[in-house]
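This section describes the prediction task in plain terms. A model, or a person checking by hand, is given the sequence of a single protein chain and must write out its three-dimensional structure as a string of tokens. No templates, partner chains or ligands are provided. The sample shown here is typical of the held-out split.
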Amino acid sequence: MYILLVNIPHPAIGSRIPREQLPPFGLLCVGGPLIDDGHRVELIDAEFGPMPLGDLVAEIVRRSPDAVLFGHSGSSSGHPIISQVSAAVSQALPHAAIVYGGVHPTYFWREILVQEPYVQAIVRGEGEETARRLMRAIAQGGPLGEVPGIAYRQAGELLATEAAPVITDLDAYRVGWELIDHARYSYWGGKRAVVIQFSRGCPHLCNYCGQRGFWTRWRHRDPVLLAREMARLHRDHGVEVFNFADENPSAGRKPWKAFLEALIAEDISVTLVGSTRADDIVRDADILHLYKKAGFERFLMGMENTDEATLRLIRKGGATASDREAIRLLRRRRILSMVTWVAGFDDQTDVDMLRGLRQLISYDADQIQALYVTPHRWTPFFRIAKDRPVVQSDLTKWDYKHQVLGMTRMPPWRLFLWVKLIEAVVQLRPRALIRWAWHSDPKIRHAIRWYYRMGRRVWLHEVSGFLFRDDVRATGQTVAGYLGAPQDHEEEASRVIRGRKPAWRKWQLGRVERR
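The expected answer:
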């Protein structure tokens, strides 16, 4: 089969502002096994440009593939665009099988199959093995019901097969690096870059996160094999920066330490950027020199908030004392610390925001990423927030960088003002500016200055967007009314889904009709 993987252009701030582009790692993970099965596989990355949707559809139609596979790391915020493009492609290429995978379709497969009849099948959960079996069944005209981990339509019924087994050997499926031109992708200030993955899943139970539900359990790649693959990408393709896709690669100290040592043994000079928990940094205080020697220049730590009561609400499982210590330990090893700080919890007040600002300043992290709490339906937090009002009806804005929930004690404009003020004060405090100007490590100084250049553009873009483009107001919808009732994505029983369209789907239909 001729299979076309499509990475749609995404309007999220993180996709547009940096003027740099990372490859669509999830699609490459699916593409490698399909190539090994003998299929002709190509990738269209419409993030470059970005490509206008009409041009993207025309290019897909020009290539006339047998199957078009859509997926996007933006998940829910990317869905309206995938919906629009796949509808146009299906109309122009009725013979092409439209397949859709990722987090959002895994949990919204019923709604998608009802509202979007052009979608032939949905891959639920991990895609490598499921996509192989699905493409084989489509190519051979076999029964889709024998493919675990999919949802599809048959004789007017919506059917979901049994859940696919968890992939225990992540090294059994290779990444399709040959699908991209490495020279086109950069990060960290113009350095050739890729996304890489050591592990999947997370052992922790934070209720705002869907990692545990989607990946089911924490697993990791062979440390030596991954180090060898990264060294090959560096030597053969000039890759300088590896951005880890893992939420928590260091969850297992023994395999993580083995990976660091294996990468050091490869003797390559690269930049590593990743995310982890502050607890793991504190735990690994005695081996942080290996982090630095391997090439780590920054860790993003999801601290989420500086208020202990809020941390208990979201079941973060961390402590502010660990957060502070992790920042101190990273700085001692000349590794940048970036902390996420989430706003928009229902009962936050001006006093809470001021206290948060003071605490963030006292933490003295190198960088901050302020986000808005977002109640995705696949997270336990959805049940906590299901009755809260929605103030952002554009699903493409559900990207953590736009406020989507109304608050009891604060109107949207005031929360936005607080968030922008906190970002500015924390990043422009004297200590931060001194590091920007005179950090003794030239690589870290480069990283700091690159982040400030990008952050300035993001900050100004968000301010102008709130003032002139975003429609933030009461919609009359609650979270449950807007997204619909949650369903267990592992449910094996077949059923027919009928009923009203979710509010976000009504918005998308109206938008398409107006165009």
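For orientation: The CA atoms of residues 462 and 493 lie 44 Å apart.
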